[in-house]
């Protein structure tokens, strides 16, 4: 690979101007003196004071669902079931909408609302958190569930029903996914952890052979594929053969509970007005058995836990098994459990953009507990390792959005929600870069160049950060005005 010399790059937020030589996919040198004109470099680019940062990772993505959501009817503005129906009624053919939030709706979704608006038309509407799907009668009939009483499917029933929907042709869907990686690179993304419920190692191996893929991918393993992965000899962190270094084996994903918006997050306290504390997806002994099996074969667990009781169950399991891994979301945490996140090898995969999205729902359904919800400052203070993701399509695959939310605790003109849980810029950037801090010789040249210094911007303005270029192993995956 030809070498690349970046002149006049600001090294990190508030950092000095330096010249950076990249060779063989790595940072070869960071120098104060301007290299001589005859310095050997295949390409020389004057960054003109742009800020050079470690490339950004999205630590929680559902790649196929994100690629499809970019082409689905946007339901995020719906403030009632009736408004959601109105948003899809004017479309034709098999219609799929995405992004509704029904936790605060004054009315209840039902299949007959869809049938009345569009008789005989197959319509599917997917909630923003991916835990609920709302089917019309025709759509239910298409997957052999015509007798379902309401058409509203949650948790496992939702996942099963969505998997039965007719999929786009494989080649077309792969192209959509590849296009989504290029869009991510334009926001400075160099890698993602894909938690799609699929054979991700096989699917991404096919994509890197047949498409231009502009990010690295850690390919997670669904729990139902664990024995298959063990049989293949897959181990978390190892490169996937034939991927040119773009792919690695990710963790195995398992669920303790559901979600806040569906009121299935498993909590110590009942949801107001009910006796229900949420849904326990995997009992503690079953969780321990699965994690032990995975860890015994070098596969790290990634445990979905949103409610405080679910997070405690996940922590108990990590302590019993004694393995590295991840707890995904950790949205509500017992006060006594923050310190338990500091165990060596444990990562808390968090999604700061969800806090401003879900604050009203949390205030209603977790009253008196929101001081320990989305509590990133307390996690950091306890010694936890954070990695920031979007959970795309639950939030856009744009790390600047999540970083701004982590610092400001809001995403609009509302006052900051529990501002005591805000975290500083340096911690946010490291959490969005898989722990990387700074630019040093020997580093893999996965880098992003921004037009302005993040340290000089108002935190809320981070969402509008202009990316001038993104490098993946020294290769431009995105380049503008450079």
Structure description:
The chain is an alpha/beta fold. The chain has 14 helices and 21 strands. Strands 1, 2, 3, 4, 5, 19, 20 and 21 form an eight-stranded mixed β-sheet that branches. The chain has an eight-stranded parallel β-sheet with strand order 6-12-13-14-15-16-17-18. Helix 1 (63-69) packs across helix 6. It starts with a strand and ends with a strand. The model has no long low-confidence stretch (mean pLDDT 96).
- Number of beta strands: 21
Structural class of the helix and strand makeup?
alpha/beta
Mean pLDDT reading: 96
First-to-last CA distance: 19 Å
Helix content: 25-40%
Kindly estimate the percentage of residues that lie in beta strands according to DSSP.
Answer: 15-25%
Radius of gyration: 23 Å
Which geometry do the CA atoms define? globular
Report the total helices. 14
Summarize the structure.
By secondary structure, the chain is an alpha/beta fold. The protein is 28% helix and 23% strand.
């Amino acid at each position: 690979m030809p070498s690349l010399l970046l002149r006049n790059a600001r090294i990190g937020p508030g950092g000095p101007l330096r010249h950076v030589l990249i060779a063989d996919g790595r940072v070869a040198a960071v120098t104060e003196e301007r290299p001589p004109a005859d310095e050997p470099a295949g390409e020389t680019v004057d960054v003109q004071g742009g800020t050079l940062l470690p490339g950004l990772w999205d630590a929680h993505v559902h790649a196929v669902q994100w690629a499809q959501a970019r082409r689905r009817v946007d339901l995020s503005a719906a403030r009632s079931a009736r408004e959601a129906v109105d948003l899809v009624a004017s479309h034709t053919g098999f219609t799929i909408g995405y992004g509704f939030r029904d936790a605060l709706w004054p009315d209840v979704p039902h299949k007959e609302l869809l049938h009345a608006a569009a008789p005989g038309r197959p319509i599917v509407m997917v909630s923003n958190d991916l835990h609920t799907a709302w089917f019309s009668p025709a759509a239910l009939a298409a997957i052999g569930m015509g007798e379902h009483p309401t058409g509203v499917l949650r948790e496992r029933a939702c996942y099963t029903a969505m998997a039965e929907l007719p999929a786009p042709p494989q080649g077309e869907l792969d192209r959509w996914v590849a296009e989504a990686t290029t869009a991510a690179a334009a926001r400075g993304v160099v890698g993602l952890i894909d938690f799609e419920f699929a054979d991700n190692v096989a699917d991404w191996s096919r994509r890197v052979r047949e498409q231009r893929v502009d990010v690295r991918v850690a390919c997670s393993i669904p729990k139902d594929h664990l024995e298959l992965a063990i049989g293949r000899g897959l181990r978390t962190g190892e490169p996937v053969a034939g991927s040119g270094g773009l792919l690695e084996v990710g963790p195995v994903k398992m669920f303790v509970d559901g979600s806040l918006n569906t009121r299935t997050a498993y909590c110590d306290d009942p949801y107001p007005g009910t006796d229900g504390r949420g849904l326990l997806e995997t009992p503690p002994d079953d969780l321990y058995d699965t994690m032990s099996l995975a860890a015994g074969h070098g596969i790290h667990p990634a445990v979905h836990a949103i409610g405080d009781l679910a997070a405690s169950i996940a922590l108990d399991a990590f302590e019993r098994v004694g393995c590295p891994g991840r707890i995904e979301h950790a949205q509500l945490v017992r006060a006594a459990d923050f310190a338990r996140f500091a165990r060596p090898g444990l990562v808390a995969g968090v999604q700061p953009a969800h806090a401003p999205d879900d604050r009203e729902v949390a205030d209603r359904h977790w009253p008196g507990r929101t001081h320990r919800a989305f509590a990133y400052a307390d996690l950091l203070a306890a010694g936890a390792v954070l990695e920031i993701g979007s959970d795309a399509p639950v939030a856009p695959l744009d790390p600047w959005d999540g970083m701004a939310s982590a610092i400001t605790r809001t995403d609009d003109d509302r006052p900051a929600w529990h501002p005591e849980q805000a975290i500083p810029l340096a911690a946010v950037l490291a959490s969005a870069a898989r722990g990387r801090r700074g630019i040093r010789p020997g580093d893999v040249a996965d880098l992003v160049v921004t037009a302005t210094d993040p340290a000089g911007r108002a935190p809320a303005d981070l969402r509008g950060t202009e990316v001038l270029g993104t490098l993946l192993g020294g290769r431009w995956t995105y380049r503008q005005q450079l």
